[in-house]
Amino acid sequence: KILIVANWKCNPTTLLEAKRLFQTVSKTASRILKIQIVVCPPFVYLPIMRQVGKGAIKLGAQDCFWEQNGAFTGEVSPKMLKDIGCSYVIVGHSERRRYFNETDEQINKKIKAVLKSRLNPLICIGETIEQKKHGQTPKVLRHQLESALKGIDRKAIKKIIVAYEPVWAIGTGIACLPEEAQSAGLYIRKLLTEKYNRRTADLIPVLYGGSVNANNATNYIKEAKLQGLLVGGASLNPKEFLSIIRSVSLL
Ligand code: 13P
């Protein structure tokens, strides 16, 4: 199944809007069987989304802590997310790396905690515009993926999902060319093959994220041959998001 993941980020600001958005998407999702839709709302909306949805949409969190419980004011653990019915957790998003100084080491700890709770980590990696200009994309992807997966064995790896999200494409309207997304996807698969083996690497979905909209969505599946999409801004507009889903479902 193709995965289409909505990352709502820090939106919307009212529960009423969140419910409306989720319900609209949920109605369509239940009719489209070849796509797995995952919605990642802010933490506070998660349990309520579970109640309003029809079960066709899986839920994801946008982050989590690496311990399961304890004296860590403000944190939310994978165990709690599992308990309220979450299936996925986005880990290492560039906005968290950038605004909250998340390190590769912390990201690795979070991924391990997510796997321990039997949730699927959606690991985000991608280069900045400066790194791209200097031809450092492969080096950055290698470094981010290797440190994210440090100490994670072949058995656990089957639950992971990797998202290639070039930082320069996020929220800029400058989407990555399908050829670039394809070569990043192939490189990620090569890295996974080196670390594990070909069969294991082939089981791991690689998604694309960064200014995905209804006009370019199919390019990443059809031309770049990736296994799904991570959608930010466009996932807040039900018309646009549903049209992304429909266009991919028609492939
Ligand atoms: P945009 O789709 O708004 O560019 O955001 C992408 C993203 O960061 C998804 O995680």
Task: Chart the SSEs and their pairings.
Blueprint: E1 2-7, H1 15-29, E2 35-40, H2 46-52, E3 58-61, H3 78-83, E4 88-91, H4 94-99, H5 104-116, E5 120-125, H6 129-133, H7 137-148, H8 154-157, E6 161-164, H9 178-195, H10 198-203, E7 206-209, H11 217-222, E8 228-231, H12 238-249
Parallel strand pairs: 1-2, 1-8, 2-3, 3-4, 4-5, 5-6, 6-7, 7-8
The structure holds 1,3-dihydroxyacetonephosphate.
Strand order of the largest sheet: 1-2-3-4-5-6-7-8
Please state the overall shape, judged from the principal axes of the Cα atoms.
globular
Radius of gyration: 17 Å
Oligomeric state, counting identical vs distinct chains: single chain
Distance between the termini: 12 Å
Amount of helix: 40-55%
The hetero molecules present are: 1,3-dihydroxyacetonephosphate
Uncertain runs = none
- Give the structural class: alpha/beta
Q: Quote the beta fraction.
A: 15-25%
- Determine the number of helices (DSSP H or I, runs of at least 4 residues): 12
The total beta strand count reads 8
Average pLDDT taken over every residue: 96
Major pleated sheet? 8 strands, parallel, barrel
Order of helices and strands: EHEHEHEHHEHHHEHHEHEH
